Amino acid sequence: MSVAKRECPSCAAEVPVDHGVCDICGYEFSAGGTYRSWVKWAALTVILVFAVLFAAQLVRMLRQ
Q: 27: alpha, beta or left, given left = phi > 0 and alpha = psi -120 to 50?
């Protein structure tokens, strides 16, 4: 039976998904990191969209 693995971001070793620590370098995988990463990128995207919209509005106001 094949064990699901993931790549260690520190040393690129293949580590079984159920291991919390890389056997080679000791990198500690965070629990639930995928969800946190998704939320972080979604929040960053929303902030950037609002920044671009604000800048566009500011440019329109300055042209008047």
A: beta
Alpha carbon distance 23, 13 (integer Å): 8
Mean pLDDT, rounded, of the chain: 90
- Write the pLDDT tens digit of every residue in 23-51: 999 999 876 656 667 888 999 999 999 99
> How many structural domains comprise the chain?
2
User: Are 22 and 45 within one domain?
Assistant: no
Q: Are residues 27 and 48 in the same domain?
A: no
Same domain, 27 and 7: yes
Indicate whether this model's pTM tops 0.90: no
Domain that holds residue 20: 1-31
